Amino acid sequence: MSDQPPANSVSVPSTNEPSLITYPCAFPIKVMGAKVDGLVHAVTHIALQFDPQFDAGTIELRESKAGNYLGVTITVNVTSRVQLDEIYRTLSTHPMVKVVL
What we know:
Blueprint: E1 25-34, H1 39-50, E2 60-63, E3 69-78, H2 81-92, E4 97-100
Antiparallel strand pairs: 1-3, 1-4, 2-3
């Protein structure tokens, strides 16, 4: 029997493992979604839930080549891995969001 996980399994790091990130820190997150009204507002709203000091003036926007999608880069101040994981989870589950990096 092999000790290898199945090819389609995803390895999720344990929260007990040491982090490569030193907290607190400013952490950039790129969010991509269809270029629709409300995407930037939704991302900003989520950022403010986790970082009340979030400065919306630091948001960077980048349209796709065809202009159908929008990349929104936010930089949030995170204090723990749990908080960072929750930000990713919240952004990823928003209906306007396609990808979070």
